[in-house]
């Protein structure tokens, strides 16, 4: 047998013997992803806008990648509990965070300290979209417009309250109180659904809540809208004024956003797979139409775009919090 044939056979035999060893040495992300259930942590309560969107995008990922996606609500500490859980999770693509500007931008300026770093501890995947908040009150409240609310609060200092369950509500209410010179009582809540229940029950005068969560109650007549936090009136709430029309609130414009992150260090191929699926979700005509009817604009992004956006939002929310006169707690 020719010498070169012996060498070929030896090499083939060696490759055959090493194949199982080399396969076992491959990193997990080089094998098929995902090969088990993916956990999505939502740092807010079930029934919130973030939770609703997380469950829908999770179902899309589950259907596309043929693995279960489990949504885990970890509410508390202004979203810091859930965000911290993801920051400390294994960076393998099996624990994701669907969250908002509260945990990724606002908490840095609202809280004296947080157990995670929004920039260093997360790998951005994609933006999901943006929405606005509405100041709402119970159907039989003694005011029906923003102007009437302001006038009522002026006549009743220290007796009118507003609830909040996230940074958007905290900042909107504090800014309205400061700029319009109102003595309002702030009632913080762990979750939006609990705050909505108290407002409809009359325990709290009003509430800043995302339009998506408020719409069912507004349409049923249990709540009425007083003002929106967007610079312009919202198309789903015709005739409802913007907070920018209140005394001292010129140019006020506050919207919230929702995005998907993974723990820092998650392999690039995994992030790419997840980004592709999230972006496909945001490009679905059915998804776009469904959320447009709920006051939420669906919008995807690249990982790099979300990273840049998150950095810019930290500065924006820092300015909003400073302008509202809020002291970190």
What does this structure look like?
This protein is an alpha/beta fold and 329 residues long. It has eleven helices and eleven strands. Strands 1, 2, 3, 4, 5, 6, 7, 8, 9, 10 and 11 form an eleven-stranded mixed β-sheet that branches. Helix 2 packs across helix 9 and helix 4 packs parallel to helix 11. The longest helix is centred in the first third of the chain and has 23 residues. 42% of the residues are buried. The N terminus is likely disordered.
Question: Characteristics of this structure?
Answer:
single chain, alpha/beta
Q: How many extended strands?
A: 11
The average pLDDT is 90
Low-confidence stretches: 1-30
Number of helices: 11
Q: What class do helices, strands and sheet pairing give?
A: alpha/beta
Give the percentage of residues in beta strands.
Answer: 15-25%
Q: Strand-and-helix sequence, N→C?
A: HEHEHEHEHEHEHEHEEEHHEH
Largest sheet: 11 strands, mixed
Shape summary: globular
Cα end-to-end separation: 82 Å
Rg for CA atoms: 24 Å
| Amount of helix | 40-55%
């Amino acid at each position: 047998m020719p010498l070169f044939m012996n060498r070929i056979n030896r090499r083939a035999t060696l490759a055959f013997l090493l194949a199982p060893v080399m396969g076992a040495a491959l990193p997990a992300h080089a094998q098929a992803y995902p090969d088990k259930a993916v956990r999505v942590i939502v740092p807010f309560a079930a029934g919130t806008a973030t939770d609703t969107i997380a469950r829908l995008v999770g179902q899309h990922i589950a259907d596309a990648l043929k693995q279960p996606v489990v949504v885990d609500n970890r509410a508390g500490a202004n979203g810091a509990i859930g965000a911290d859980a993801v920051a400390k999770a294994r960076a393998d693509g099996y624990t994701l965070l669907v969250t908002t500007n509260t945990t990724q931008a606002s908490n840095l300026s609202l809280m004296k300290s947080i157990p995670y770093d929004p920039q260093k501890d997360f790998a951005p995947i994609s933006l999901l979209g943006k929405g606005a908040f509405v100041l709402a009150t119970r159907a039989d409240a003694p005011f029906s417009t923003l102007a009437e609310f302001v006038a009522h609060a002026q006549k009743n200092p220290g007796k009118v309250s507003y609830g909040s369950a996230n940074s958007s509500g905290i900042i909107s209410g504090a800014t309205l109180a400061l700029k319009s010179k109102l003595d309002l009582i702030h009632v913080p809540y762990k979750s939006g659904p609990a705050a909505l229940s108290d407002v409809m029950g009359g325990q709290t005068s009003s509430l800043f809540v995302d339009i998506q969560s408020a719409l069912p109650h507004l349409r049923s007549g249990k709540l009425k809208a007083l003002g929106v936090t967007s610079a312009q009136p919202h198309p789903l709430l015709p005739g409802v004024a913007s907070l920018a029309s209140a005394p001292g609130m010129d140019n006020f414009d506050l919207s919230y956003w929702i995005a998907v992150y993974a723990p820092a260090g998650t392999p690039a191929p995994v992030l790419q797979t997840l980004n592709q699926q999230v972006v496909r979700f945001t490009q679905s005509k059915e998804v776009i139409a469904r959320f447009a009817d709920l006051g939420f604009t669906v919008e995807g992004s690249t990982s790099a775009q979300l990273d840049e956006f998150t950095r810019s939002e930290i500065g924006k929310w820092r300015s909003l919090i400073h302008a509202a006169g809020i002291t970190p707690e």
